[in-house]
Structure to design on (218 residues):
């Protein structure tokens, strides 16, 4: 009888550990949005590089702020409208692609696309993004145009860092990288557009590739 108890005790412990592991897995799934696709990051990076190229082609002759290039009110207004339009279009396309790839991954995994964790992710992502957008508009209103590109990177990084609590941990590291790149861009304002391309383009692509091969491939 005692021997049977000795045999069943370890088996019972293993069963409890298995149950605890399953419960923990369910809790992590319910609190974290795990359907975020790495392809979303890659597509965002490609769009970021495209936007950087377009903006550079338009703004390059005005980029050296140390020489105080002469910009008329009409030219400045044209550049601002151009920059906002390009950014808005790229942002819209990026989110459409992110939704598409994420929904596709969720469908393959048999997981819901819009649940509590997704809502928390979106809210925590958009609060810093909207704040950053308003902040950049204030910079433009106050004629601090040179700080707009670095500020976009910093607030983007803060948004990712804030949202990283509700999805894959790699998002946090991407956010920290974006903040560092944005602060570096403030130190080298003449090259801010290149830092912008690095942050919104290259880093998003690298992050997306890591996410894809770590969580989706195979």
């Amino acid at each position: 009888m005692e021997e049977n108890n000795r045999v069943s005790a370890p088996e019972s412990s293993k069963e409890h550990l298995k149950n605890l592991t399953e419960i923990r897995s369910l809790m992590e799934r319910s609190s974290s949005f795990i359907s975020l696709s790495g392809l979303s990051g890659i597509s965002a990076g490609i769009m970021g590089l495209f936007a950087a190229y377009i903006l550079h082609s338009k703004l390059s002759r005005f980029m050296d702020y140390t020489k105080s290039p002469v910009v008329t009110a009409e030219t400045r207004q044209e550049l601002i409208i151009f920059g906002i339009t390009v950014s808005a279009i790229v942002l819209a396309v990026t989110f459409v692609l992110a939704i598409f790839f994420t929904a596709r991954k969720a469908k393959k995994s048999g997981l819901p696309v819009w649940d509590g964790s997704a809502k928390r992710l979106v809210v925590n992502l958009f609060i810093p993004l909207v704040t950053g957008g308003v902040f950049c508009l204030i910079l433009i209103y106050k004629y601090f145009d040179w700080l707009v590109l670095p500020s976009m990177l910093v607030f983007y990084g803060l948004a990712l860092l804030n949202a990283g609590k509700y999805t894959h941990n790699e998002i946090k590291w991407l956010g920290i990288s974006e903040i560092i790149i944005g602060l570096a861009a403030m130190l080298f304002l003449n090259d801010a557009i290149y830092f912008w391309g690095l942050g919104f383009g290259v880093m998003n692509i690298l992050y997306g590739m890591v996410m894809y091969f770590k969580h989706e491939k195979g």
User: Anything to note?
Assistant: The two ends are 48 Å apart (CA to CA). DSSP finds seven helices and no strands in the chain. Confidence is low (pLDDT under 50) at residues 22-31.
